[in-house]
């Protein structure tokens, strides 16, 4: 399970029966990891306000099946959740689409067109509160449903490890530049995280150069020359932010003195804190200024050791941020769906800066279930009735 901290929008009809102008369908209809037994693996997008009961009802699963597939999920939806699950092949999946508003169309107009809350449109697209105007020629990202029966069954299914589960195109945005459209395909989880982080960087560094995204994967995955990876939609190359960049759209070899350390650290921090990043590959020379900057934010020695290979040498085999030859002009991020890659302490320190808690995080109530579960524990396992909790 991966959490993406923004809201999404949904409309109830099939994507192919709604009479709206969809410019780009980001998620294509080929099934991801379909199996010969009539099931397939998907990443189910849960929206704010939805519950465990909503998910199992729509997916045709039991609570136990959903929780078994997501043992670290506490059952709450904070922002947007992506839950990896195995479902019958005819179950509808949720997709990401880009909708280009008509000239003069407003937030309320788009909300009415898709039958969603205006606040959902604002938050998903990072539009300031109470703002009704929409940027000119900027697509609005929404979530739609595609009927699973239109997708068929791939007889080979899981046979090819390079196949992308639920291939999704990252689309366009004022927050980033994509170098090659044909290699902008990733998992829905990868795309949601990258769009979110790009928007956060733009918000925290107003007027700065948009992030430059290189290759993610081809539409259906597989070998992508000259890379050894980038086969499954969970790898992405991002240009190292530079202090002298001005409308750059390419990668440039960067020295420590030319790296925009503050923006690079915020890029890495925003990605790693999700717990969905397995590795960040970056030239060892660029790790030192990043390490020094991160240390200055108050991170503990243990968390710095968990994050950085530096200062233990470029052959040290621990740390999320590691050296790899050829990574002096870009950051290579590898996402992982199936395991939490960051300790609870690191998540807390990276989230709050000084390692303190904004609230008691030990216990949370699962909405509409009437139970209390241990946060970051197994989904509903060992839960007690809320009335019996302290």
Defining key terms:
single chain; 390 residues; alpha+beta; Muramoyl-pentapeptide Carboxypeptidase, domain 2; 2 domains; four-stranded mixed sheet; 9 helices; 20% strand; globular
Indicate how many domains the architecture comprises. 2
Task: Give the radius of gyration.
Answer: 21 Å
- Low-confidence parts lasting 5 or more residues at pLDDT below 50? 5-33, 149-162, 354-378, 380-390
Shape: globular
Distance, first to last CA: 28 Å
- Helix content, binned percent: 10-25%
Structural class: alpha+beta
Q: What can be said about the biggest beta sheet?
A: 4 strands, mixed
**Biggest sheet, spatial arrangement of strands:** 2-7-6-3
What does this structure look like?
Helices cover 23% and strands 20% of the residues. With 390 residues, the chain is α+β, with helices and mostly antiparallel strands. The protein has two domains: 1-157, no CATH class; 160-358, Muramoyl-pentapeptide Carboxypeptidase, domain 2 (2-Layer Sandwich). The strands form six sheets. A four-stranded mixed beta sheet has the order 2-7-6-3, with no helix packed on it. Strands 12-15-13-14 form a four-stranded mixed beta sheet, with helices on one face. The protein has a three-stranded antiparallel beta sheet with strand order 1-5-4, sandwiched between helices. The chain starts with a strand and ends in a 5-residue tail after the last strand.
């Amino acid at each position: 399970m991966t959490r993406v901290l923004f809201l999404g929008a949904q409309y109830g009809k099939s994507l192919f029966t709604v009479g709206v102008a969809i410019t780009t369908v980001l998620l294509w209809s080929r099934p991801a990891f379909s199996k010969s037994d009539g099931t397939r693996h998907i990443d189910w997008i849960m929206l704010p306000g939805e519950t465990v009961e909503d998910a199992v009802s729509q997916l045709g699963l039991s609570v136990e099946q959903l929780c078994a597939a997501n043992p670290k999920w506490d059952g709450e939806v904070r922002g947007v959740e992506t839950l990896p699950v195995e479902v019958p092949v005819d179950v509808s999946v949720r997709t990401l689409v880009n909708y280009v508003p008509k000239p003069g169309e407003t937030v309320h107009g788009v909300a009415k067109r898709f039958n969603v809350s205006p606040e959902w449109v604002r938050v998903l697209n990072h539009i300031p509160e109470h703002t009704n105007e929409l940027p000119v020629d900027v697509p609005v990202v929404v979530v739609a449903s595609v009927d699973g029966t239109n997708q068929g069954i791939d007889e080979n299914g899981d046979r090819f490890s390079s196949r992308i589960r639920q291939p999704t195109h990252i689309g366009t945005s004022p927050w980033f530049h994509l170098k090659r459209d044909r290699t902008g395909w990733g998992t829905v989880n990868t795309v949601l995280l990258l769009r979110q982080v790009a928007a956060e960087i733009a918000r925290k560094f107003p007027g700065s150069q948009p992030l430059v995204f290189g290759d993610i994967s081809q539409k259906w995955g597989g070998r992508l020359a000259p890379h050894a990876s980038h086969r499954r939609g969970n790898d992405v190359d991002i240009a190292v932010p530079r202090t002298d960049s001005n409308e750059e759209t390419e990668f440039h070899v960067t020295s420590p003195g030319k790296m925009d350390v503050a923006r690079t650290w915020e890029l890495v921090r925003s990605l790693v804190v999700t717990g969905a990043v397995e590795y960040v590959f970056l030239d060892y020379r660029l790790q030192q200024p990043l390490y020094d900057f991160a240390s200055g934010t108050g991170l503990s020695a243990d968390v710095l050791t968990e994050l950085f290979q530096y200062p233990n040498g470029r052959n040290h085999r621990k740390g999320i941020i590691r050296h790899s030859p050829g990574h002096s002009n870009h950051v290579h991020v590898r996402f992982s769906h199936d395991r939490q890659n960051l300790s609870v302490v690191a998540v807390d320190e990276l989230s709050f800066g000084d390692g303190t808690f904004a609230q008691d995080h030990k216990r949370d109530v699962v909405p509409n279930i009437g139970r209390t579960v241990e946060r970051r524990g197994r989904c509903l396992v060992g839960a007690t009735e809320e009335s019996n909790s302290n």
